[in-house]
Amino acid sequence: MTEQYDLIIRNAVLRTSPKTRTDIAIKDGRIDRIAVNLDGKAAKELDAGGNLVTESFVNTHLHLCKVYTLMMMDEAALKDYHGADMGKAMTAIELAAKIKEQYDEKWIIKNVRKACALAGRYGCTHIRAFADVDSKGKLEGLKALIRAREEFKGIVDIQVVAFAQDGLVREPGAEDLMRQAMDLGADVVGGIPWIEYTDADIAEHVHICFKLAMEYDKPVSMLVDDAGDNGLRSLEVMALETIRTGWQGRSLAHHARAMSMYPKPYLQKLAAILKKAGMGIVSDPHTGPLHARVRELQEEGVPICLGQDDISDAYYPYGRNNMLEVAFLNSHLLWYTTREDMETLYDMVTKTPARLIGLQDFEIKQGAPANLVVLDQPNVLEALRFHERPVYVVSHGKLIDQQQMEKILKDNS
């Protein structure tokens, strides 16, 4: 009897076997078989035509409640955040916060849908998405993201982060709002400890986040040391708290831009602490003039991935949820230009971020969830060179309907 599958991708080139054309059979949402000249039939068959088929893309850092808000404000925050030494980063955050006085789920959800439809278009099937939770925005952004999480279920998986953007110690009532956000169904506890005024308050901010994480049994994501100040040490505080609480593998740091100014001995000490904490870092070099020391951390064995960070908001004017584009930009910013570097970059927008946000078996192997992209180029070099939308995107074993994504973009423009 001929084996029946839901979907077969034929004539695929895999990164692990670039000279062989391989067939991939998908059934019940998973990769059932991988073989050359695979026998069997499927309700739908796709011809990769000798082009690259890889894991789909993963965006571990997107301020999804803020997308497309740039045109609603002036550029003062953008100028301060992108200043040469990022010395006015905190001022930029305070300026950007003004938009939240207008926050309303009704208009936020339209912007969110556009960004998620773009994710579907560009093969980004998983997003860790931040929603500001504070006295200005209240829970409006979070509600929009939870709504989008349900609307895009099975197409783009959204991990909603309740993010204390304006602090937990300096912002009265913020901890109560964070608890309400977790009760509403947030998936991740999010913090930004460096924004507090004193070292003691930074430590308290971190402590509150981990307390909530343990109470609700959720992972933690924190934006740390996101300014041009080599005295910032909130990454270390977060890593030590991760070790103290036993939250290894469930704790993820973002930005760590001050690291660019750290002396080498402290950087090596920090890398050792991060490894003990089982922590990785999300870096977004394209959205600010400073960034984490990516290559040095990788050489020390600390996992690093890339995030989109922002789409047309107070901090970054561009972006379209295209993680190949993010990798292309950072090939230049990080000088990752050898073939080996390019393969590393590709991992930094696929397998590595998947692991860092807790996705299991995120790779092309038998039995793994079928989250795949069929590209229009034969290798990683050409994929990065053109950073175009995939020919096909498979999410949870099903082909994403690109006409539906285009309709969502049109209806919410």
Describe this protein with a few key phrases.
globular, 8-stranded parallel beta sheet, TIM Barrel, 413 residues, 16 strands, Urease, subunit C, domain 1, 22% strand, alpha/beta
- Strand percentage lies at 15-25%
* Overall body shape: globular
Mean pLDDT reading: 96
N/C terminus separation: 50 Å
User: What's the total count of β strands?
Assistant: 16
> What is the CA-based Rg, rounded?
21 Å
Output the strand order for the largest sheet. 6-7-8-9-10-11-12-13
What's the CATH architecture name of the largest domain? Alpha-Beta Barrel
The CATH superfamily of the largest domain is known as Metal-dependent hydrolases
Q: Uncertain segments of ≥5 residues (pLDDT<50)?
A: none
The helix/strand series, from N terminus to C terminus, equals EEEEEEHHHEHEHEHEHEHEHEHHHEHEEH
Broad structural category: alpha/beta
Please report the number of helical segments.
14
CATH class of the largest domain: Alpha Beta
When the domains are counted, the total is 2
Indicate the CATH topology of the largest domain.
TIM Barrel
Give helix % range.
25-40%
- Specify the biggest β-sheet: 8 strands, parallel
What can you see in these coordinates?
The structure is a single chain. The protein folds into 2 domains: 4-50 and 362-398, Urease, subunit C, domain 1 (Roll), CATH 2.30.40; 57-356, TIM Barrel. Helix 3 packs antiparallel against helix 14 (402-411) and helix 10 (323-333) packs across helix 13 (380-386). Helix content is 36%, strand content 22%. By secondary structure, it is of the alpha/beta class. It has 14 helices and 16 strands. The N and C termini lie far apart (50 Å). The radius of gyration is 21 Å and the shape is globular. An 8-stranded parallel sheet has the order 6-7-8-9-10-11-12-13.
